[in-house]
Amino acid sequence: VAVDCQIDVSYEDIVLNERAYESWSSIK
Fold first, then answer.
1. Residue 5: how many CA atoms within 13 Å on its side-chain side?
2. E strand or H helix that includes residue 5
């Protein structure tokens, strides 16, 4: 379970990072 949670968190972090990067790119 711990491993699954870590994978889910990592996946969410990747998605958030992509959205943040897109937002930053649009602002720039």
1. 2
2. helix 2-27
Q: Which residues contact 12 (CB under 8 A, 6 or more apart)?
A: none
Encode pLDDT of 4-25 as tens digits: 666 666 788 888 889 988 988 8
- Rounded Cα distance between 12 and 16, Å, is 6
Rounded Cα gap, residues 20 and 2, in angstroms: 27
Instruction: Compute CA 13 distance to the chain's CA centroid, rounded to the nearest angstrom.
Output: 3
What number of residues does the chain have?
A: 28
